[in-house]
Specification:
The chain is an alpha+beta fold. The protein contains two helices and three strands, in the order ααβββ. Helix 1 packs antiparallel against helix 2. The protein is rod-shaped, with a radius of gyration of 19 Å.
Length: 99
């Protein structure tokens, strides 16, 4: 029984750590998506890009912002580093001119 426990314990710990890491990345992805939507709406209303970038960095540390126009829409793409060197990103669009 002790030998089986000694063999199984590292695998259980590894699976548990992978699950926790996945939940952390999923939570950060949700925060990043919310920050992208907020930044798109703010920029579409005429807020400065530097202010939107500062707010996004406060909501998701290390986030970088890349706004661009797609027709009548002002779109924002946010990227942020995650665990193990992964980079996650989210994008959102708002009607340009705040209407």
């Amino acid at each position: 029984m002790t030998a089986e426990f000694a063999v199984a314990l590292p695998a259980v710990v590894l699976v548990f750590a992978a699950c926790l890491s996945g939940m952390q990345v999923a939570g950060q992805q949700l925060r990043l998506q919310d920050a992208a939507a907020h930044a798109a709406r703010s920029l579409a209303r005429g807020e400065l890009a530097s202010a939107a970038a500062a707010r996004a960095s406060r909501e998701v540390p290390g986030a970088s912002i890349a706004p661009h126009l797609e027709g009548d829409l002002l779109c924002v793409r946010l990227s942020a580093p995650a665990i193990f060197g992964l980079t996650i990103s989210a994008s959102s669009c708002a009607l340009a001119g705040g209407q």
